[in-house]
Amino acid sequence: MSLRPFLWLPLLLVCTAPRAAELTVSAAASLSEAFGAIASGYQHAYPQTRVMLNVGASGLLLQQVARGAPVDVLAVADRQTMDQAERLDLLLPGSRAEFAKNTLVLVVPASTQRVIHDLSDLLGADFRRVAIGNPDAVPAGRYAQDALRAAGLWPRLQDRLVGTQNVRQALAYATRGEVEAAFVYRSDVHQADERVSVALEVALEPLPVYPIAILRNSNKLEQARRFLAYVRSPAGQALLQRQGFVTPTEARP
Length: 253
Fold this sequence. Notes:
By secondary structure, the chain is α/β, with parallel strands linked by helices. It folds into two domains: 9-101 and 210-251, Periplasmic binding protein-like II (D-Maltodextrin-Binding Protein, domain 2, 3-Layer(aba) Sandwich); 104-201, 3-Layer(aba) Sandwich (D-Maltodextrin-Binding Protein, domain 2). The protein is 34% helix and 22% strand. The chain has nine helices and ten strands. The protein has helices spanning 8-16, 32-45, 58-66, 79-87, 139-150, 167-175, 186-189, 221-231, 234-242, and strands at 21-28, 49-56, 73-75, 97-101, 104-109, 130-133, 161-164, 181-185, 196-201, 209-214. The strands form two sheets. The protein has a five-stranded mixed beta sheet with strand order 2-1-3-10-4. The chain has a five-stranded mixed beta sheet with strand order 7-6-8-5-9, with helices on both faces. α2 (32-45) runs antiparallel to α9 and α3 (58-66) packs parallel to α4 (79-87). The termini are far apart.
């Protein structure tokens, strides 16, 4: 009896095994580590789905989606950017939710001896370069701009401000000592390995809020809904807390 027909069985099983669905999530740069951990937790709970994480400045992510980038879930660092996405009719109705808050801080290289009591100290001779995200695309930069304008300092600091493409670039400049100070989120400080210290917490009311939503054109709605639920679940919220985010009570299921 020939055994040849049996040799086809393993090949048939390999060829017909279901492939993992790929869920593309675009997230603000400040969410890089937190969403990396959340993606791992989600994939452990739902191994049939692979999360493809795309991080960047919130404004840039919105531009990508508006130009047709194949994104399933969008998570940004401010309500304003998500409002724009909603006005452009990019969101799946009813999917938008808020899942975390953050605090804006002014950091200095850990080795510095400079002391900052309030934002006006940035006018001192010790602060020649201050990193700030581009306010047109980076929510952290826009929050910093608002705070400096409220203090009457924005016009006076123009020649000292070093613009960055996202909040993590501002943090990198500070960790390398390339600037004397930088505006970042408190959660970002967790990634600096004690190379920076918080010199000042910038008073903002309300605190920066992080919204998340499913994109209208997603063809993976089931997986996207599960991902949003996981982000807002106790497990997802715990991962955010470990990265320095504030998890609002309204974000809990």
